[in-house]
Design brief:
Structural class: alpha+beta
Number of strands: 8
Largest sheet: 5 strands, mixed, barrel
Distance between the termini: 46 Å
Strand content: 15-25%
Order of helices and strands: EEEEEHHHEEEHHH
Bound molecules: zinc ion
Number of helices: 6
Radius of gyration: 20 Å
Shape: elongated
């Protein structure tokens, strides 16, 4: 049984048996994995709070050839997000980060870009206590990295530019089932409207790192629109509703 060491982020953990935990984590070098932390629910467990959701840790684990589950041997906290979960809006965003990462990434396929995105967005929510821009950024980039982002600059049907600014700016229209963003002329009933402000925010988020976006350039309502559209795309791709999204709608 080879021992592996990796940087990782905890996605979820569930009670297992009397004293153990089943842990889903994103390893920076090995991708999404699941493992058992023996005795993690005992009061004097050697794991302490390292297995809390989104904890950024260094992890040591044994891979077992015949089983999907690795055996987690030891963890060390690099950064904890426990405090950020105390704020309601932040906790919903953080829950969506972990649920989405868990849902869209395949088993055991390393993706450094997804790892960095998750860490950057969690750190931004923790640092700023502002969930909305980070959530929009996370959802948009998850869709982009998944290869599911339709063109944002031209209509997917007729090819007309969607980039008009100022007075001439028109809303765009989005259909999750065809993953297309279209112009006013090509819209069909039931499509979601995307305001010019939201289109502009999405463009900016593709061009700038989250921590370099200024507050003025990302308004809450426009960010929320981007989030809704991208969560629609994600739900269409995974073919089910995201559980944490219901909390977002009630917030
Ligand atoms: Zn069109």
């Amino acid at each position: 049984m080879p021992l592996h060491e990796s940087e990782a982020i905890i996605l979820q953990s569930y009670p297992l048996g009397e004293a153990d935990r089943l842990v889903s984590f994103l390893s920076r070098t090995m991708g999404r994995m699941r493992g058992v932390a023996s005795g993690a629910r005992r009061t004097k467990s050697r794991f302490g709070s390292t297995l809390e959701r989104l904890s950024h840790i260094r992890i040591w684990f044994f891979e077992r050839e015949t089983r999907d589950l690795v055996r987690i041997s030891q963890c060390e906290v690099i950064e904890s997000f426990l405090d950020a979960f105390r704020d309601y809006a932040s906790s919903i965003a953080l829950s969506l980060f972990s649920e989405i990462t868990q849902s869209v990434l395949p088993d055991k396929e390393a993706s450094d870009a997804n790892f960095r995105l998750l860490l950057l967005c969690a750190q931004t929510v923790k640092r700023t206590s502002k969930a909305e821009p980070a959530l929009a950024y996370f959802a948009l980039w998850t869709v982009k990295l998944g290869g599911w982002l339709p063109p944002l600059d031209t209509c997917s049907r007729c090819g007309r530019s969607l980039l008009a600014r100022g007075e001439s700016a028109q809303p765009a229209y989005f259909s999750p089932s065809s993953s297309a963003i279209v112009c006013a002329n090509c819209r069909r009933p039931g499509m979601r409207v995307i305001s010019p402000a939201a289109m502009a925010v999405a463009q900016r988020m593709l061009a700038e790192r989250l921590d370099r976006l200024t507050e003025e350039s990302v308004q809450g309502r426009a960010a929320r629109e981007v989030t809704e559209v991208m969560l629609d795309v994600i739900e269409h791709q995974i073919d089910r509703k995201l559980i944490s999204r219901e909390l977002l709608e009630s917030a």
